[in-house]
Design a protein that fits this description.
Layout: H1 21-39, E1 46-47, H2 56-63, H3 76-98, E2 102-104, E3 114-117, E4 122-125, E5 128-132, E6 141-148, H4 150-159, H5 161-164, H6 166-178, E7 185-191, E8 197-202, H7 206-224, H8 239-242, E9 244-246, E10 249-251, H9 257-262
Parallel strand pairs: 1-4, 6-7
Antiparallel strand pairs: 2-5, 3-4, 5-6, 7-8, 9-10
Helix pairs in contact: 1-3, 2-7, 6-7
């Protein structure tokens, strides 16, 4: 430290070490993210965003807002990734409007477009509807977009959304069915690392839409009857439970795996 009063005879002590600013800042942000997550009310409906998952019991646990296994709430890093993805979707929407697309993403009251059936127990909310635009395609069209990490993005480009991301494909088919948008949907994916955009027209798969709708009905009916739906797999070591790749598809770890396998059936 510079002694600007070097003639005063005052002796300065060594300053105390301060915590690493990166750690300190990350810690307080994580606390805030965690508090926000805990304050959110759990969904009490079957969401179209999860119906394409492999295991019906996992979908049922989610619908019933069954408490997750200890330590299975989303980590702060994951919450940041989710928020980055949401911001990425907003950016792509703004870029499309700049390009001349008439893209509608919310109603006059500020809420998303979507559908509600089964007395509010099965819902879905779309990213948007494209009414017109400068690209040769059929209008109006459903618009669904995701912001993906580089490896996930590359796999989507290589194999297409239906094969690479069956959960997204299920969403798209349901939205096309319930919002009466049978034209091919425009799916876009933003590479979060490079800001590249991948686009794909996804034809309406009426069979897939019916299968996913039937799944939602099965979840609601079984839950009303207090029946537990079957597991997708026979062993807790399966990637469906523990997470991992299987048959070219990524399965995130099930948040209810311990509870599920403690059950008798």
């Amino acid at each position: 430290m510079i002694d600007l009063n070097h003639g005063s005879g005052v002796h300065y002590t060594t300053s105390r070490p301060t915590p690493d600013i990166t750690t300190a800042l990350s810690d307080v942000i994580d606390i805030g993210l965690g508090a926000r997550q805990r304050s959110e009310r759990p969904r009490r409906y079957v969401s179209s965003s999860g119906l394409g998952r492999a295991c019906m019991r996992q979908i049922q646990y989610d619908y019933l807002a069954v408490p997750k296994d200890e330590g299975q709430d989303f980590a702060p890093k994951t919450l940041r990734i989710f928020e980055a993805g949401h911001r990425g979707e907003e950016m792509v929407a703004s870029w499309m409007r700049l390009a001349g697309f008439d893209l509608r993403t919310e109603r006059d009251d500020g809420r998303q477009f979507g559908f509600t059936v089964l007395g509010g127990r099965f819902k879905g909310h779309i990213d948007g509807c494209i009414v017109s635009g400068p690209v040769a395609m059929s209008y109006p069209a459903l618009w669904e977009t995701k912001a993906l990490g580089v490896s996930s993005w590359k796999d989507t480009v290589k194999r297409g959304v239906v094969v690479s991301k069956p959960v997204y494909a299920a969403q798209i088919a349901l939205y096309q069915a319930y919002l009466d948008l049978p034209n091919p949907a425009l799916f876009t994916a933003l590479n979060r690392d490079t800001m590249e955009i991948y686009a794909e027209l996804v034809p309406f798969d009426v069979v897939l839409a019916q299968q996913m709708s039937d799944r939602a009905v099965a979840v609601v009916q079984a839950s009303d009857a207090q029946e537990v739906l079957p597991r997708e797999v026979a062993e807790p070591t399966s990637v469906v439970c523990k997470g991992g790749m299987a048959a070219g598809h990524w399965h995130p770890p099930c948040a209810w795996a311990q509870r599920c396998w403690r059950a008798k059936s």
